[in-house]
Write a structure and sequence with these properties.
The complex is a heterodimer of chains A (145) and B (114).
Chain A: E1 4-13, H1 22-33, H2 38-58, E2 61-69, E3 72-80, H3 87-91, H4 100-104, H5 112-119, E4 122-128, E5 132-140
Antiparallel strand pairs in A: 1-2, 2-3, 3-5, 4-5
Helix pairs in contact in A: 1-2, 2-5
Chain B: H1 3-9, E1 13-16, E2 27-30, H2 34-40, E3 46-49, H3 54-63, E4 67-70, H4 78-86, E5 91-93, H5 98-107, E6 111-112
Parallel strand pairs in B: 2-3, 2-6, 3-4, 4-5
Antiparallel strand pairs in B: 1-5
Chain lengths: 145, 114
Protein backbone atom coordinates (compact mmCIF):
# COMPACT_ATOMS: atom_id res chain seq x y z
CA UNK A 1 0.00 0.00 0.00
CA UNK A 2 1.49 3.35 -1.02
CA UNK A 3 1.75 5.97 1.70
CA UNK A 4 -1.16 8.39 2.04
CA UNK A 5 -0.21 11.99 1.41
CA UNK A 6 -3.63 13.41 2.05
CA UNK A 7 -6.99 12.22 3.35
CA UNK A 8 -9.94 14.51 3.63
CA UNK A 9 -13.64 13.92 4.26
CA UNK A 10 -16.47 16.00 2.86
CA UNK A 11 -20.10 15.89 3.93
CA UNK A 12 -22.76 15.85 1.21
CA UNK A 13 -26.29 16.94 2.06
CA UNK A 14 -28.96 14.96 0.23
CA UNK A 15 -31.68 16.84 -1.73
CA UNK A 16 -29.81 20.12 -1.46
CA UNK A 17 -29.60 21.04 -5.13
CA UNK A 18 -28.41 24.55 -4.40
CA UNK A 19 -25.19 23.31 -2.81
CA UNK A 20 -24.79 20.29 -5.08
CA UNK A 21 -21.36 20.39 -6.65
CA UNK A 22 -19.66 22.46 -3.95
CA UNK A 23 -17.66 19.50 -2.67
CA UNK A 24 -16.40 18.74 -6.17
CA UNK A 25 -15.43 22.36 -6.70
CA UNK A 26 -13.48 22.28 -3.46
CA UNK A 27 -11.71 19.09 -4.51
CA UNK A 28 -10.81 20.69 -7.82
CA UNK A 29 -9.18 23.59 -5.98
CA UNK A 30 -7.30 21.29 -3.59
CA UNK A 31 -5.90 19.10 -6.37
CA UNK A 32 -5.03 22.05 -8.58
CA UNK A 33 -3.19 23.73 -5.69
CA UNK A 34 -1.27 20.51 -5.10
CA UNK A 35 -0.03 20.69 -8.66
CA UNK A 36 -1.78 17.58 -9.98
CA UNK A 37 -1.84 17.76 -13.78
CA UNK A 38 -5.03 19.33 -15.22
CA UNK A 39 -6.27 16.30 -17.27
CA UNK A 40 -6.09 14.09 -14.17
CA UNK A 41 -7.81 16.73 -12.04
CA UNK A 42 -10.52 17.01 -14.66
CA UNK A 43 -11.19 13.27 -14.75
CA UNK A 44 -11.21 13.02 -10.98
CA UNK A 45 -13.53 15.99 -10.59
CA UNK A 46 -15.99 14.62 -13.15
CA UNK A 47 -16.12 11.40 -11.11
CA UNK A 48 -16.56 13.42 -7.90
CA UNK A 49 -19.26 15.66 -9.38
CA UNK A 50 -21.33 12.79 -10.81
CA UNK A 51 -20.95 10.93 -7.52
CA UNK A 52 -21.90 13.99 -5.51
CA UNK A 53 -24.96 14.59 -7.70
CA UNK A 54 -26.06 10.99 -7.19
CA UNK A 55 -25.92 11.46 -3.42
CA UNK A 56 -27.80 14.77 -3.64
CA UNK A 57 -30.45 13.31 -5.93
CA UNK A 58 -31.08 10.00 -4.22
CA UNK A 59 -29.70 9.84 -0.69
CA UNK A 60 -30.33 11.48 2.66
CA UNK A 61 -26.68 12.22 3.18
CA UNK A 62 -23.27 11.01 2.19
CA UNK A 63 -19.58 11.34 2.86
CA UNK A 64 -16.98 11.70 0.17
CA UNK A 65 -13.41 10.83 1.15
CA UNK A 66 -10.53 12.03 -0.97
CA UNK A 67 -7.32 10.07 -0.57
CA UNK A 68 -4.12 11.03 -2.32
CA UNK A 69 -1.15 8.69 -2.38
CA UNK A 70 2.11 8.79 -4.32
CA UNK A 71 0.54 6.49 -6.91
CA UNK A 72 -3.08 7.43 -7.22
CA UNK A 73 -6.08 9.46 -6.17
CA UNK A 74 -8.96 7.59 -4.59
CA UNK A 75 -12.51 8.74 -4.03
CA UNK A 76 -14.83 6.92 -1.68
CA UNK A 77 -18.42 8.06 -1.68
CA UNK A 78 -20.66 6.42 0.90
CA UNK A 79 -24.28 7.38 1.25
CA UNK A 80 -27.31 6.60 3.34
CA UNK A 81 -29.96 6.17 0.71
CA UNK A 82 -32.25 3.79 -1.10
CA UNK A 83 -29.42 1.73 -2.57
CA UNK A 84 -29.26 0.31 -6.09
CA UNK A 85 -31.21 -2.85 -6.81
CA UNK A 86 -29.46 -3.88 -10.00
CA UNK A 87 -26.01 -2.31 -10.31
CA UNK A 88 -25.36 -3.77 -13.75
CA UNK A 89 -28.56 -2.22 -15.08
CA UNK A 90 -27.79 1.10 -13.38
CA UNK A 91 -24.40 1.18 -15.11
CA UNK A 92 -26.06 0.94 -18.52
CA UNK A 93 -25.91 4.20 -20.40
CA UNK A 94 -29.37 5.68 -20.79
CA UNK A 95 -30.91 3.76 -17.89
CA UNK A 96 -32.28 6.09 -15.26
CA UNK A 97 -34.62 6.12 -12.30
CA UNK A 98 -34.51 9.92 -11.99
CA UNK A 99 -37.53 12.04 -11.17
CA UNK A 100 -38.68 15.04 -13.21
CA UNK A 101 -37.14 17.31 -10.58
CA UNK A 102 -33.75 15.70 -11.11
CA UNK A 103 -34.05 16.01 -14.87
CA UNK A 104 -34.97 19.66 -14.52
CA UNK A 105 -31.64 20.08 -12.78
CA UNK A 106 -29.95 18.74 -15.90
CA UNK A 107 -29.16 15.35 -14.39
CA UNK A 108 -30.71 11.91 -14.39
CA UNK A 109 -30.36 11.08 -18.07
CA UNK A 110 -28.66 7.79 -17.33
CA UNK A 111 -25.09 8.84 -17.95
CA UNK A 112 -23.75 9.54 -14.47
CA UNK A 113 -22.38 6.13 -13.56
CA UNK A 114 -21.04 5.48 -17.04
CA UNK A 115 -19.30 8.86 -16.95
CA UNK A 116 -17.71 7.86 -13.67
CA UNK A 117 -16.59 4.55 -15.12
CA UNK A 118 -15.17 6.24 -18.20
CA UNK A 119 -13.06 8.67 -16.19
CA UNK A 120 -11.84 6.36 -13.44
CA UNK A 121 -9.15 3.72 -13.87
CA UNK A 122 -11.07 1.57 -11.45
CA UNK A 123 -14.66 1.88 -10.29
CA UNK A 124 -16.40 -0.35 -7.79
CA UNK A 125 -19.94 -0.01 -6.53
CA UNK A 126 -21.40 -1.79 -3.54
CA UNK A 127 -24.98 -1.31 -2.54
CA UNK A 128 -27.59 -2.59 -0.15
CA UNK A 129 -31.20 -1.80 -0.93
CA UNK A 130 -32.74 0.34 1.79
CA UNK A 131 -29.37 1.13 3.35
CA UNK A 132 -27.11 2.90 0.91
CA UNK A 133 -24.45 2.81 -1.72
CA UNK A 134 -20.67 2.97 -1.64
CA UNK A 135 -18.65 3.97 -4.64
CA UNK A 136 -14.93 3.47 -4.83
CA UNK A 137 -13.07 5.18 -7.67
CA UNK A 138 -9.36 5.23 -8.33
CA UNK A 139 -7.37 7.29 -10.77
CA UNK A 140 -3.75 6.42 -11.29
CA UNK A 141 -1.23 9.25 -11.24
CA UNK A 142 1.43 7.68 -13.41
CA UNK A 143 -0.47 6.30 -16.40
CA UNK A 144 -2.24 9.53 -17.29
CA UNK A 145 -0.80 12.91 -17.46
CA UNK B 1 -13.81 31.60 -34.60
CA UNK B 2 -13.67 34.22 -31.94
CA UNK B 3 -16.39 34.32 -29.31
CA UNK B 4 -17.02 37.95 -30.27
CA UNK B 5 -17.95 36.82 -33.82
CA UNK B 6 -20.24 34.13 -32.41
CA UNK B 7 -21.87 36.79 -30.25
CA UNK B 8 -22.73 38.81 -33.38
CA UNK B 9 -23.88 35.78 -35.39
CA UNK B 10 -26.25 34.62 -32.69
CA UNK B 11 -27.30 38.14 -31.65
CA UNK B 12 -26.24 37.51 -28.08
CA UNK B 13 -26.29 39.69 -25.05
CA UNK B 14 -23.22 39.31 -22.83
CA UNK B 15 -24.06 38.86 -19.14
CA UNK B 16 -20.49 38.46 -17.95
CA UNK B 17 -17.03 38.13 -19.51
CA UNK B 18 -17.21 41.10 -21.90
CA UNK B 19 -13.42 41.40 -21.62
CA UNK B 20 -12.94 37.76 -22.55
CA UNK B 21 -14.62 37.59 -25.97
CA UNK B 22 -11.40 37.20 -27.95
CA UNK B 23 -11.17 33.52 -26.99
CA UNK B 24 -11.00 31.22 -30.03
CA UNK B 25 -13.70 28.56 -30.38
CA UNK B 26 -13.39 25.55 -32.67
CA UNK B 27 -15.71 23.02 -31.04
CA UNK B 28 -19.17 23.15 -29.53
CA UNK B 29 -21.03 21.01 -27.02
CA UNK B 30 -24.79 21.53 -26.90
CA UNK B 31 -27.16 19.87 -24.46
CA UNK B 32 -29.58 20.39 -21.60
CA UNK B 33 -28.15 17.24 -19.98
CA UNK B 34 -25.20 18.09 -17.80
CA UNK B 35 -23.80 14.55 -17.78
CA UNK B 36 -23.82 14.64 -21.55
CA UNK B 37 -21.69 17.77 -21.49
CA UNK B 38 -19.36 16.18 -18.94
CA UNK B 39 -19.15 13.05 -21.08
CA UNK B 40 -18.22 14.77 -24.32
CA UNK B 41 -16.51 18.04 -23.52
CA UNK B 42 -12.74 17.88 -23.72
CA UNK B 43 -12.26 21.47 -22.46
CA UNK B 44 -12.12 24.79 -24.29
CA UNK B 45 -15.40 24.23 -26.12
CA UNK B 46 -18.34 26.54 -26.35
CA UNK B 47 -21.22 25.15 -24.28
CA UNK B 48 -24.78 25.78 -25.42
CA UNK B 49 -27.62 24.92 -23.08
CA UNK B 50 -31.15 25.83 -22.11
CA UNK B 51 -30.53 24.93 -18.49
CA UNK B 52 -29.96 28.10 -16.51
CA UNK B 53 -29.51 26.83 -12.95
CA UNK B 54 -26.36 26.81 -10.85
CA UNK B 55 -25.48 23.31 -12.07
CA UNK B 56 -24.98 24.61 -15.59
CA UNK B 57 -22.10 26.79 -14.43
CA UNK B 58 -20.71 24.09 -12.14
CA UNK B 59 -20.74 21.73 -15.12
CA UNK B 60 -19.11 24.37 -17.32
CA UNK B 61 -16.40 24.85 -14.72
CA UNK B 62 -15.74 21.15 -14.23
CA UNK B 63 -15.84 20.39 -17.95
CA UNK B 64 -13.51 23.33 -18.52
CA UNK B 65 -15.48 24.95 -21.34
CA UNK B 66 -14.48 28.39 -22.62
CA UNK B 67 -17.91 30.02 -22.54
CA UNK B 68 -21.61 29.34 -22.02
CA UNK B 69 -24.47 30.49 -24.25
CA UNK B 70 -27.99 30.13 -22.92
CA UNK B 71 -30.50 29.59 -25.71
CA UNK B 72 -34.25 30.13 -26.18
CA UNK B 73 -34.14 33.47 -24.39
CA UNK B 74 -33.63 31.83 -21.01
CA UNK B 75 -31.84 34.03 -18.51
CA UNK B 76 -30.02 32.82 -15.42
CA UNK B 77 -30.51 34.49 -12.02
CA UNK B 78 -28.11 37.22 -11.01
CA UNK B 79 -26.31 35.02 -8.49
CA UNK B 80 -25.62 32.44 -11.19
CA UNK B 81 -24.09 35.11 -13.42
CA UNK B 82 -22.00 36.24 -10.44
CA UNK B 83 -20.87 32.65 -9.89
CA UNK B 84 -19.80 32.41 -13.55
CA UNK B 85 -17.94 35.71 -13.25
CA UNK B 86 -16.12 34.34 -10.22
CA UNK B 87 -15.16 31.25 -12.25
CA UNK B 88 -14.17 33.53 -15.14
CA UNK B 89 -16.57 31.88 -17.57
CA UNK B 90 -18.15 34.25 -20.11
CA UNK B 91 -21.95 33.94 -20.18
CA UNK B 92 -24.07 35.01 -23.15
CA UNK B 93 -27.78 34.76 -23.87
CA UNK B 94 -29.64 34.58 -27.14
CA UNK B 95 -33.30 34.27 -28.14
CA UNK B 96 -32.40 31.68 -30.76
CA UNK B 97 -33.34 28.03 -30.24
CA UNK B 98 -30.66 25.37 -29.91
CA UNK B 99 -31.31 23.84 -33.33
CA UNK B 100 -30.81 27.16 -35.11
CA UNK B 101 -27.71 28.00 -33.08
CA UNK B 102 -26.11 24.67 -33.92
CA UNK B 103 -27.03 25.03 -37.60
CA UNK B 104 -25.52 28.49 -37.86
CA UNK B 105 -22.30 27.54 -36.08
CA UNK B 106 -21.95 24.30 -38.05
CA UNK B 107 -22.30 26.26 -41.27
CA UNK B 108 -19.46 28.47 -40.14
CA UNK B 109 -17.19 25.48 -39.75
CA UNK B 110 -17.46 24.79 -36.05
CA UNK B 111 -17.62 21.14 -35.06
CA UNK B 112 -19.39 19.23 -32.36
CA UNK B 113 -17.45 17.13 -29.89
CA UNK B 114 -17.95 13.38 -29.91
Amino acid sequence: MPAELLREEFFIQGRNFEKAGEVSSEIKTILRDLGIDPPTVRRLVIVAFEGEMNVVMYAERGVLTLILTEEDIVLEIKDEGPGIEDIELAMKEGYSTASDEMREMGFGFGMGLSNMKKNADELRIESEVGKGTSVFARISLNTHG
Amino acid sequence: MRLSEIKELLRCEVLTGEDNLSVDITEVVASDGMSEILAFAKSKELMITGLTNIQSIRTADIAGVSAVIYCRGKRPDKKIVEFAAQKRIPVLVTDMVMFDICGILYNKGLKGVS
